[in-house]
Amino acid sequence: MRALIAAATGLAAAIALVLTITAIGAPAGETSPEPLLTTVPEHP
């Protein structure tokens, strides 16, 4: 029975955390217009 209560408490805490993060929203900001380099440029 204690395990069931602990699992329910943990699930409730996880859902509360997700809802809190969702309510706050993503931080405002802009993405860079420049593409990220995925390879090292060649040096002549």
TrEMBL record:
<protein>
    <submittedName>
        <fullName>SPW_0924 family protein</fullName>
    </submittedName>
</protein>
<dbReference type="InterPro" id="IPR048001">
    <property type="entry name" value="SPW_0924-like"/>
</dbReference>
